[in-house]
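Protocol step 6 of 9: fold each sequence in the batch and record its structure tokens directly after the sequence line. For illustration, a two-sequence batch is reproduced in full.

Sequence one:
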Amino acid sequence: MCEKKPEISQKTILEIKEARERIKKGEFYTEAEAKKILGL
């Protein structure tokens, strides 16, 4: 069984790497903070 991997742009890969670095530094929103920002 052969599955095709969707192509991910270089921009997306860079954004994921940057997000991982921010998370490692403790720079992220909690679920409650995100809901407040989004007005949910």
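Sequence two, same batch, same settings:
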Amino acid sequence: MKRLLLRLCLFLSLALSLTGCIDDDISNCPVGIRVYFTYETTYAGTDIDPSAIERMNLYVFDAGGILRAVVQDSDPDISADYYMTVPSLSAGNYRFAAWGNLYGCFSTVPAVFTVGQTTFEEARLAFAHTDEAPVISQPLFFAHLPAAKVTTEREQRFYLPLEQTVNTVNLTTEGLPVNENSYRLRIKDNNGAYTFDHSFASDSEFTYTSLCDKDAGGQPKATLTVLKLGAGRHPVIELTDMTTQTVRYTGDLVELLDARGVDYRTQHVFDIHLKFSTTSNVEVIIDGWQVTEGGFILK
């Protein structure tokens, strides 16, 4: 009997709390917002792996650029059915930005975001580095919806397209002397800071570095994980013989990739082959496409 009375009391309490939602005027009803993530790509073999996203941080800014909500999920299971729920927002225009795997060598600036104070203009993502970059142990992802109109509907759904912010550069070579010399691959860039619309922010130059292994034919090879690449930038790729301290190749990485015609938003793995000859020229082949001839970039 007591249990029945308790249930009755709870039911009446709930009914009273929802009175405003039962009437035709639903302005007092809570606004439920679900944020989904899409991850379609157009370049074969470079699909985003949703299982690689171990944490998700979602930020909501109003039309004036003021932070209005922060939602975190430390164990997301990204799929077509996965969503993050945003606390009640007043009707209006908003902007959504999200970072996947924001931890370790990645952090925000300012370090602590304050709802009602932090602005979109000041928000940054930063990659911790000195003159040399640390090993990037986890991929970084970004999602953005620049314009979202929140209404008084009981439930709304918004979809944010995911982009990958890390890239893999695989280097192979041929034509170098077969000996015991050691080699090092380096890529110099200043791509360690981003605004919350995924644009490059101001950063100092630093170097990604990897010592080379040797393939079965005794030729140097290496793999480097680097952050976002983009048209109009000028990161430098360099292969050095560490034994003789001789730079065997140096070039503008983006200029080479542009000659290949890559889509930086969807392609994140680049296979670069350097073909050395008895002359001083080095031919560059990217993803099986020759992009230089006689030492000049093919346009």
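Proceed to step 7 once all outputs are recorded. Observation for sequence two: The first strand starts at residue 32 and ends at 38.
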